[in-house]
Amino acid sequence: MYKNIQNILEMKGKEKITVLTGYDSTMVALCDQVDVILVGDSAGMVMLGYEDTSSVTMEDMIRFTTAAKNGRKNSLIVSDLPINSYKTENDAIRNSLKLIEAGADAVKLEGGKEVAEIIKSITEAKIPVMGHLGLLPQTAQKYTVQGKTKESAIELIEDAKIITESGVFSIVLEMVSSQVARIITEKISVPTIGIGSGKFCDGQVLVVHDMLGLFEKIKPKFAKRYLCLSDEIRNAVKSYAVEVKEEKFPSIEHEFQMDESEYTKLREHID
Ligand code: KIV
Fold it and tell me: Any idea which positions bind Mg(2+) (predicted)?
């Protein structure tokens, strides 16, 4: 049985929560030891080759969610509601239901007090919601650290309290100064999941392509690389291409043979 919302809530203050993004069944099956797989709209960049998340559609997120569900055994699946899919309460509920039908256990959306009513209506429809504060990639003009001044910090803390009251079961804090992430984590009852927000959050999330060293376009400071898969892949592809050109691949162990007597009969027929 895979993790549920209650399991995640109970981890606050006891055990750090591990989250990785995942968009396809093969990768999700490999990463399924983390607590949560986030089908993020970062798929727009790492899977679809867009510059940002602004062109990601509901159809894209449904397809990625289905693929993630097909690979998971243990992790909770949270899927992003893409930009423009939660403008009204009706849109938000209808589109959240589509992601749940595709295999998500919960949905995530970006914003503070301005989306409080939307969050409330989704949770009233019995769909768990993860919030997302700090840097909001769907609308950000620039990727800068959030909560660096007293005023902006107070606003972030207020937003965190408001969306917690609206019913989120956890909140992603993206590129929030470590001190503010710590205060939010201490002040709210649900777990915070940090990305570039320091060690005091209740859990951490990374984009799987960043942490495996697969995505080379952007290298955020916070995205620690645990592997450099892009080099390994390039080397493997080079070896494959050389072996094919030099007729070293395929060799006998990669072939299928016809029965010798059948082959003799075939040759006689052809010749
Ligand atoms: O889309 C995404 O992958 C995200 C994470 C960066 C938190 O929202």
Answer: 41, 80, 110
DSSP 8-state secondary structure symbol assigned to residue 227? -
pLDDT tens sequence across 51-91: 999 999 999 999 999 999 999 999 999 999 999 999 999 99
pTM above 0.90, yes or no: yes
41 labelled as ligand-binding? yes
Buried b (16+ CB within 10 A) or exposed e, 69-86: bebbeebbbbbbbbbebb
Omega before 191 within 30 of 0, i.e. cis: no
CATH code (residue 104): 3.20.20.60
What are the φ/ψ torsions at residue 77 (nearest 5 degrees)? -110, 125
Q: Cα(102)–Cα(264) distance, rounded to whole angstroms?
A: 53
The CA 219 to ligand 1 mean position distance, Å, reads: 14
Q: Is the CB of 42 under 6 A from ligand 1?
A: yes
- 114 and 242 part of one domain: no
Q: How many domains does the chain have?
A: 2
Q: State the pLDDT at residue 250.
A: 97
Residue 84 main-chain phi, psi, to 5 deg: 70, 5
